[in-house]
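Intended use. Records such as the Uroporphyrinogen-III C-methyltransferase entry shown here are meant for training and evaluating sequence-to-structure methods. They are not intended to support clinical decisions.
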Amino acid sequence: MGKVFLVGAGPGDPDLITVKGLKAIQQADIILYDRLVNKKLLSHASPKAKFMYCGKDPHRHSLPQEDTNKLLVNFAKKGQTITRLKGGDPFIFGRGGEEAEILAEHQIPFEIVPGITSGIAAPAYAGIPVTHRDYSSSVAFVTGVINKNIDKDSYWKHLALGPETLCIYMGVKKLPEISELLIKHGRPIDTPVALVQLGTSENQKTVVGNLMNIVEVAKDIENPAMIVVGEVVKLREHISWFEAGQSQASLANLTYQ
């Protein structure tokens, strides 16, 4: 029996891979990787490793999730070491839990290797801490694309009156609706909002507004992008670092051995 590593590749900057995640890439016989994985990470694989793309974009799935599950099981039963490489963290909107369930069902050994999720990293690279003792003592990671069986009003009402910071994944297309529902259920219209497109990458772009005007401000922002709602967004004005050119000069020549 082989083994499967469910690995979080981080949010985009290849230097944000964990040491354990890098080791899983290096020892894999087969790497199944997703759309938002930085392809530079694949260069650390063994020359004998095989690669399979399992990406999903908002418009089409190159490989249905059920087929990905079958590949993991079949390769492992052939004695292969498989690294399932996912953008961000495998257990935060990454379907890692679903894949782990299948592996457990088939009694296949596996390990979970957490990664840095974009809900933390993209705001950080934009100069926005998701918590701060003067602004926010709570944060929620939520998705803009919710199950059709969930009542949208109840969902956003709970969030409007709950956590002080909202980090919203997969919400760009739903931004008008999200803003409207948060205002409807009690969030002040002047609540700061930021959208961080391609967070932690060299093409990162950030725009800032409030719940009332963010749809217009962010009209040119596309997926993948993280939406941050809350008073912590104000801190970007003071601690923005990455896009201001204070980039990783001291880390630019970092290489993996």
